[in-house]
Amino acid sequence: MNVVVVESPTKAKTINKYLGSNYKVFASSGHVRDLSAKGGSVLPDDDFAMKWDIDNASEERLSKIAKAVKESDSLILATDPDREGEAISWHVLDVLQKKKILKGKKIKRVVFNAITKKAVLDAMLNPREIDTDLVDAYLARRALDYLVGFTLSPILWHKLPGARSAGRVQSVALRLICNRESEIERFVREDYWSVSVDLKTPRDNIFTARLISFEGRRFGKLDIKTEEEAQEISAMLERAVFRIQSIESKPIKRNPAPPFTTSTLQQAASSRLNFSASHTMEIAQRLYEGVDLGGETIGLITYMRTDGVQMTSEAIDSTRKAIARTFGNNYLPEKPRFHLTKAKNAQEAHEAIRPTDFSCTPDNVRRFLDSDQFRLYELIWKQTIASQMQPANIERTTIKIHAQNNGAIACLYATGSVIRFDGFLAVYIDTCKDGAIEDEENSRLPEMHVNEDLRQNKITVSKHTTEPLPRYSEATLIKKLEELGIGRPSTYTSILSTLRDRKYVSIEKRRLTPEPEGRVVTAFLENFFNRYVEYDFTADLEKKLDLISDGKLAWKDVLRDFWQHFSASVTDINHLRITNVLDMLNEVLAPIVFPARGDNSDPRLCPLCHIGKLSLKLSRYGAFVGCSNYPECKYIHQLGNNKEEQADKPTILGQNPQTGEDIIILTGRFGHYVQCGKNKEARRASIPKSWKIADIDLQKALALLSLPREIGIHSETGKVITSSIGRYGPYLNHNGQYANLESIDEVFTVGINRAIMLLGEKQKKGNRRSTSAAVTLAKLGEHPKGGKVSVQDGRYGPYVKWNKINATLPKYKDPTSVTLEEALALIKAKADKIGTTKTAAKKTATEKKAS
């Protein structure tokens, strides 16, 4: 009997079917051990010795594998064909060697790029040893990430209270996002005008030409700065004579793009399918691990973590046959195409992402896939097929037109493109219509001839405004990271999820927006650890890690060189005082924290007391702006990006009719609130998030400040019933018994009869919610170890559930937006915590027993 170790339970089931009864396939369920989540797991002074921890779940899996190996003839390590897969095999082997159960056993390492019967059986016939260079690269990367995270994070916690942790690559990605935001804020918009003319040919066909020069002056896109100048040109063209001066047609060949890599697949899925990076990888994983096609489980695509664009000769041959079969021989190039990657520092160790069998067309497998699986598979299939097809032959025509009016001369251009042979574009039927590429610049032009006169049909003068570069989306950030040579296919998704989980960025309309905490952390790192968030430095370090993979650098030499300089920088920063940090942040972030005021007054003068100076303050909840005149003045407002919600000065709604004190709207760390008076004992009440600040008037403010509202006396108990707004929404309170209200407005309108009815219904239900099954909000899919993962709404709020493990969702997380990947991370953290607690309890019990 032979024991085979793969990574996921799904793969294990499929591969066991391929190999037969003489093999027993086990799943490691990812990494079986990791560096301990505490300091001292990487020891620079002990030649970078590393201490590994095994959680309870992994210990159980390893025990099952060890038991089976004892009774087997050989151990076959068949984890994924990349650095992480190699590391998992190395970890499993190292653990089993320490158990001393491998004596006399054959040890084999096999890799396959696709989960098909042929690929798996071929791999079994071609075993190799574990690639120590890949393992060394993994060890170096893991040690670097650990050393940076566990060295920088305590500094952040001490110097920037409220900050979370800092990662080696995540900090650089965050810097990209924050720097783009600063560019947007600094951008000065400019108005410009364009002039275009709709012209009619002698055959009464209409087309559009745009102005490119007037009276010998050639115009760029932004050169017409005023409406007066645009109208002057329009007036001249109104009575001008238009004549075609030249017609020039040029053939253009448009070549197909290569097959997908991890990053290009994520980018294409984002732009064409609106998928997030994590969702794309989740679906790709399922397509790779196998889909049941009517009784037979087959992996539909090759391994999905790769930066290579090449395919095997067999795959290219299959692609060409599919092209000839589907589109005809005239779409097939004479020779196969060989693509080269453009990514910086790419490691072309693996094939591109492609279908495993080109006879499995999207239409053939559609009934076996859900909607998202089908769309992603169709995208991969089309891209792979197109990559080996003929180029598209496009004829681009440029027509130059002269306009004359009483000696004044203007020149206009019209351009159009026609597809003469669609080539690879035939795969994307929706790309072209009637042989023309339809867009504003490249529409089909009507029949025209040189020296023909044209008639003016309409003149359009349009005003435009320059726009800054857009914020990064997940796809464009991944593209930028790849261009800079930062990160690798297996890390892009985790980089993005880490930034979100730490609340350093948020996603608004599919764009990444830096949160205040993220901007503060970036400003700190740029000013005190600039070398380690430089793009070139990070890319160079990635290059060194790749050289370790190639066996050209020793991994510990790279660590020594890094640690020598990094530890010295840390020593210098440890002596820094928090006041120095705040002074730097006040200066660097001044345009954001203290924006200019319309009345040209000092933006740092406190708008409440008019005495103190505004400054950034740090707390366990993060950064905020406060007054130097504290505690006499308690003015604070949140550091944020939404300027409409940041009051530069308090809004006075009126006076309290009983005390004459001002009723004010203020902004604090936890949002907007109303306040009565300015002294230390001033009464405050939070403004509900569902209320618009612009709609808050004196009456609503007084109502909020009056809570809890007394509704009346309960007819049975004689106790008072009140209504108010709490952390979880509007509610009733009767002698310690609570019942929910439907809306905020009902807090101020509910009557005694309805209140008694709601309390009675709650009493009849008793504690039903705590004893009944929680409500399922979303079903996320299968756990790698088997079993459904779901999002539940329980008595104490939303949580993710798998088997007997319940993991509470962070308060800021929308339960409906949770992905399977995020849920698995929460479940793992909870399982590790449970395991640690049980281990500690056992240890305590043992110690007590021994004593």
Structure characterization notes:
Helix 5 packs parallel to helix 17 (555-574), helix 6 (170-186) packs across helix 15 (516-528) and helix 8 crosses helix 12. A 6-stranded antiparallel β-barrel has the order 9-10-16-15-12-17. It has a 4-stranded parallel beta sheet with strand order 2-1-7-8, sandwiched between helices. The chain is an alpha+beta fold and 851 residues long. Helix content is 37%, strand content 23%.
User: Kindly state the mean pLDDT as a whole number?
Assistant: 85
Return the structural class: alpha+beta
Q: How can the largest sheet be summarized?
A: 6 strands, antiparallel, barrel
The termini sit apart by 47 Å
The quaternary state of the protein chains shown equals single chain
Observed structural traits:
disordered C terminus, single chain, 23% strand, alpha+beta, 37% helix, 24 helices, globular, 851 residues, 4-stranded parallel β-sheet, 34 strands, 6-stranded antiparallel beta barrel
Helix and strand arrangement:
Elements: E1 2-6, H1 9-19, E2 23-27, E3 34-35, E4 42-43, E5 49-50, E6 52-53, H2 56-70, E7 74-77, H3 83-98, E8 106-109, H4 117-124, H5 132-159, H6 170-186, E9 191-200, E10 206-214, E11 217-218, H7 227-238, E12 241-254, H8 262-273, H9 277-289, E13 291-292, E14 297-298, H10 313-326, H11 362-365, H12 371-387, E15 392-405, E16 408-421, E17 453-465, H13 474-484, H14 492-501, E18 505-508, E19 511-514, H15 516-528, H16 535-549, H17 555-574, H18 578-588, H19 590-593, E20 614-619, E21 622-627, E22 636-638, E23 651-655, E24 662-668, E25 671-676, E26 683-686, H20 698-705, E27 709-713, E28 720-726, E29 729-734, E30 737-740, H21 744-749, H22 752-765, H23 768-771, E31 775-782, E32 788-794, E33 797-802, E34 805-808, H24 820-850
Helix pairs in contact: 3-5, 5-16, 5-17, 6-15, 8-12, 8-13, 9-12, 15-18
